[in-house]
């Protein structure tokens, strides 16, 4: 027996129904805000991945050399590839440019609850603005997606990585990025060691990292060194208040990637326990790294797999009770396929292709949770009728073929 690679999954039909249902709702909401879909290659040149995520990321990606000795990597996320497309193809288009994606990514990490080596992201990039209005829009969009999906037990946490970077401004940028990487991982002991010999207000830094709550907490740092950053942050919060988005301020949010520069946010599904983050994003700067002019940008991505888990925790992905049909032809004539075409205009309709006896075909229908069976034999065709058996009610009726559409419309 062959087994699948560690950290990957097979999605059977029932699971795929759930995933496609969620994907379709996300796609619809993204497009309602004016975002357009983009797709990039599954693998990229390694330099693209390390350009702003740093060499540190090599430990957690799938990289390889192809037959031309080029070093490539399976994409670990979508932001860098999308910004490459922007730099190559879109940088002179009118701004803002609103793009979205729903695609698989790959990371060589230890698999755990809701975290796999092959995983999916659904996200947006708003290119051309990082204004408070733009940032508020993407946060409101993420909130709107969750509302449309019906999720209730979640919390939006918002911070400002610019505040953290300002306190660390005397630290070398490379080391600063590494410090924020460990902050994101919650390894504050490592951070303390790294700051021992640095000219940093350590008391202020660790105080800010622990600041959580409503807007009143900003009064404590709305002066001197951080005043401009608090003002910028407050403008975004003002707009979110107008939009009616509920949030919690959490100044300890650092995000794990080096390119974030301003407002950042994460969304937590409380019922998922320790691995509760289902969305993250914020303001970043990447365009110049890939050869374009510096361009303000903001975006976010849902961890699609964890989002599915969160929806399941709230029993929001129960099986849809849509009618499903099985057509059992006792004879093969053109009218059989005409009936199948009529039904398929409204519902899924399988054709019995195993040439089983009627009893065995009905047993199959039961195991497949098919709700209606259509039986077409010589007698039915002579009367221009089809026998319809409601499997749930165990009731069978005959319907004229030219009245079948009316019957189907009533089932919708």
Q: Any idea what the CATH architecture of the largest domain is?
A: 2-Layer Sandwich
Tell me, what's the shape?
elongated
Tally of alpha and pi helices: 14
- Radius of gyration, taken over Cα atoms and rounded to an integer in Å: 27 Å
| Beta-strand segment tally | 17
pLDDT under 50 segments (min length 5)?
none
Cα-to-Cα separation, first versus last residue:
43 Å
Instruction: State the secondary-structure class.
Output: alpha+beta
* CATH level-3 fold name of the largest domain: BirA Bifunctional Protein, domain 2
Strand content: 15-25%
Helix fraction by DSSP (H/I, runs of at least 4): 25-40%
CATH class of the largest domain: Alpha Beta
Let me know the CATH homologous superfamily of the largest domain. Answer: Bira Bifunctional Protein, Domain 2
- In the sheet with the most strands, the strands line up as 1-5-6-12-11-10-7-9-8
The residue-averaged pLDDT reads 93
The overall number of domains is 2
For the biggest sheet, the summary is: 9 strands, mixed
Explain how this protein is built.
- It is a single chain.
- The chain is α+β, with helices and mostly antiparallel strands and 412 residues long.
- It has two domains: 13-313, 2-Layer Sandwich (BirA Bifunctional Protein, domain 2), CATH 3.30.930.10; 324-411, Rossmann fold (3-Layer(aba) Sandwich).
- It is 37% helix and 23% strand.
- It has 14 helices and 17 strands.
- The protein has helices spanning 13-32, 46-53, 79-90, 132-149, 161-167, 173-184, 188-195, 202-209, 227-243, 304-313, 334-344, 358-367, 378-382, 404-411; strands spanning 36-37, 43-45, 63-65, 71-74, 97-106, 118-127, 154-160, 212-213, 248-250, 260-269, 277-284, 297-303, 324-329, 348-351, 372-376, 385-390, 395-400.
- The strands form three sheets. It has a nine-stranded mixed β-sheet with strand order 1-5-6-12-11-10-7-9-8. Strands 14-13-15-16-17 form a five-stranded mixed β-sheet, with helices on both faces. A three-stranded antiparallel β-sheet has the order 2-4-3.
- Helix 1 packs antiparallel against helix 4 (132-149).
- The chain is elongated and about 90 Å long.
- The protein starts with 12 loop residues before the first helix and ends with a helix.
């Amino acid at each position: 027996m062959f087994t699948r690679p560690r950290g990957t999954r097979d999605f059977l039909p029932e699971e795929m129904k759930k995933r496609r249902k969620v994907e379709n709702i996300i796609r619809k909401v993204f497009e309602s805000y004016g975002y357009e879909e983009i797709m990039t290659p599954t693998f990229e040149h390694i330099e693209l991945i390390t350009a702003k995520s740093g060499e540190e990321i090599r430990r957690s990606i799938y990289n390889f050399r192809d037959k031309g000795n080029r070093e490539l990597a399976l994409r670990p996320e979508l932001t860098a590839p999308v910004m490459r497309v922007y730099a190559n193809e879109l940088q002179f288009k009118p701004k803002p440019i609103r793009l979205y994606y729903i695609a698989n990514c790959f990371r060589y990490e230890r698999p755990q609850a809701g975290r796999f080596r092959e995983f999916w992201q659904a996200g947006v990039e708003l290119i051309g603005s990082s204004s408070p209005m733009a940032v508020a829009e993407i946060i409101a969009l993420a909130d709107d997606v969750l509302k449309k999906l019906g999720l209730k037990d979640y919390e939006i946490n918002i911070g400002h990585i610019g505040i953290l970077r300002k306190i660390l401004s005397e630290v070398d940028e490379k080391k600063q990025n590494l410090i924020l990487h460990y902050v994101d991982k919650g390894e504050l002991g490592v951070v303390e060691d790294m700051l021992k010999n640095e000219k940093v207000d350590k008391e202020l830094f660790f105080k800010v990292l622990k600041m959580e709550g409503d807007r009143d907490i900003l009064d404590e740092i709305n002066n001197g060194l951080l005043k401009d950053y608090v003002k910028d942050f407050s403008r975004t919060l003002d707009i979110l208040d107008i939009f009616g988005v509920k949030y919690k301020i959490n100044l300890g949010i650092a995000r794990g990637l080096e390119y974030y520069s301003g407002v950042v946010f994460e969304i937590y599904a409380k019922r998922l326990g320790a691995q509760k983050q289902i969305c993250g994003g914020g303001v970043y700067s990447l365009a110049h790294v890939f050869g374009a002019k510096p361009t303000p940008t903001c975006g976010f991505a849902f961890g699609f797999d964890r989002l599915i888990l969160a929806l399941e925790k709230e029993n929001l992905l129960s099986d849809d009770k849509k009618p499903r049909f099985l057509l059992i032809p006792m004879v093969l004539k053109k009218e059989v396929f005409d009936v199948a075409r009529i039904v398929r205009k409204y519902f899924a309709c399988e054709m019995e292709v195993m040439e089983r006896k009627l009893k065995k075909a009905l047993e199959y229908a039961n195991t497949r949770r098919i709700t209606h069976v259509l039986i077409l034999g010589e007698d039915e065709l002579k009367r221009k009728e089809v026998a319809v058996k409601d499997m749930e009610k165990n009731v069978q009726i005959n319907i004229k073929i030219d009245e079948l559409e009316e019957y189907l419309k009533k089932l919708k």
